Amino acid sequence: MEDSLKKRYSIKLFANIISAIIGAILIAIVPKALGPIAYGQFIYLQLFFMKLIGFLDMGSSIAFFTKLSAKHSRKELITFYFIYSLFVLIFLFLFIFLIDNFGYLDFILPNIPNEYIYFGLFFGFFVWLTQVFIKISDAHALTVSVELLKIGHKIISLMLLLYFIYVLTFNITTYFYFNYIALISFLLILSWLFIKKGIFNKKILSLDLEFKNITKEFVNYCSPLVVYSVVGIIVGLFDIWLLQKIGGSEQTAFYGLAYSFAAICFLFTNSMTPIITREFSKSYEEKDLDKMRKLFYRYIPMLYSIAAYFSIFISVQSENVLEIFTDEKFKDAYLVLVVMALYPIHQTYGQLSGSIFYSTGQTKLMRNISLFTQPFGMIISFGFIYLLDLGAIGLAYKMIIVQFIGVNIQLYFNSKLLNLDMKYFILHQLYSVLFFIILAYLSSSIISFNSSLIDFVVSGMIYTIFVIIFGYIFPQVFSTTRDEIKENFVRLKSVIKK
């Protein structure tokens, strides 16, 4: 028996709350321990290799997840994808090795010592492989088991990091070693679980598979995404390269720090992405467009508002946030965080709305949309970072603008496919953001303390109370009704009594 969608989402959300807490602790200690220059170098390597691996992925991991979700008895898909993963690693290594030997490494990775580059390569690969393993678990509806394991693993990893920082000599090299230990141990734990559940068995070790047919199946799905991936890597690498080249490692550090805070906000809605993608895949396989329509109306506006609740408050409180979590070296990241904190709002729409394209195999349409938005984003990056010399804040502006445009283009096509009322979703995007902006500013201006921490906590409590009160008065903000809120409140009371 599979766990229900609500149960899987609840446990994934709980795990992501733990991840958010641990993420906040990491932000509080790692940038300060490394310093802006070293932290910026780490961020650049992380972004560079994730972009490069994203290009080599070419949507194949989404194809793998979608096909395994639709029919998870297909063990040959796992074998095939592990072979492909090995190809990705070999290609990465050869690419960097050749670039190094031809003397272009410093041009592509400016201001980065060579000894850190191979560390970054393997780090990026293990991060991507971990995501592949998570996709396998979500495809088999093992969300509950995996998220519980993830919670325990993250807590132990945090204790290990504290040992690395406060006992050993902490620098980029030791930070990479820590990440290797954390990632590889998690992969081994998941492998043990998959063996126990019968997902990994002797069949996946067999090379006796219809390699040609499976390759053709993946090529048919991913071929429209080749152009998408090429454009994506050109734009993605151009953005971070231009920032590193013009602004230097410090500006990259400011962007990376702001992005880390934004990622914490996104964790609360990211919980739903693989789960709802799986449901869309199954529903589309069964030709149940009505169920897909209901899922879209039900969850996407709600999760958009949840993302806005966190993001807007962090944006308004950005000065306090930086004072709490960082030191004087990062105070100039204030405006970058003001802008970048808003990124998860439409990132939520992008992930969930985009899952429709992958679930229905509309990868050509995804490619065509990116052919418009990505080059446009490149022009904005050049203007903001190079011409106006805005550094990290310029890249933050670019991310917000392009995300907003791309998401609403996706929404237009999804509205046509599922016969949705697009005006409803556009209006919801606008009035829900306005709702949270007003409440965030009110809660932040009512009381002021000398302590940034107390100011942040008290303002957050007042803000949350305001959201609860006015969320009940205007339930449409969370795509719900007063009766539903009452019903959930009664359920919560009964759980607490037990």
Descriptive notes:
The chain is an all-alpha fold and 498 residues long. It has 2 domains: 1-222, no CATH class; 225-421, no CATH class. The chain has helices spanning 5-34, 36-57, 60-70, 75-101, 105-108, 114-139, 143-166, 172-196, 202-205, 211-222, 224-270, 273-285, 289-316, 318-325, 334-340, 343-359, 363-387, 392-418, 422-446, 452-473, 482-497. Helix 1 (5-34) packs across helix 11 (224-270), helix 2 (36-57) crosses helix 11 (224-270) and helix 12 (273-285) runs parallel beside helix 16 (343-359).
Structure, briefly:
The chain folds into two domains: 1-222, no CATH class; 225-421, no CATH class. The protein is 84% helix and 0% strand. It has 21 helices and no strands.
Topology readout:
Layout: H1 5-34, H2 36-57, H3 60-70, H4 75-101, H5 105-108, H6 114-139, H7 143-166, H8 172-196, H9 202-205, H10 211-222, H11 224-270, H12 273-285, H13 289-316, H14 318-325, H15 334-340, H16 343-359, H17 363-387, H18 392-418, H19 422-446, H20 452-473, H21 482-497
Low-pLDDT stretches are none
Helices and strands: which structural class? mainly alpha
Q: Please provide the count of β strands.
A: 0
Average pLDDT over all residues: 85
Domain unit count: 2
Terminus-to-terminus distance:
25 Å
Shape estimate: globular
Question: How many helices in DSSP terms?
Answer: 21
**What percentage of amino acids are in beta strands?**
under 5%
Largest sheet: none
The helix fraction, in percent, is over 70%
Rg, nearest Å: 23 Å
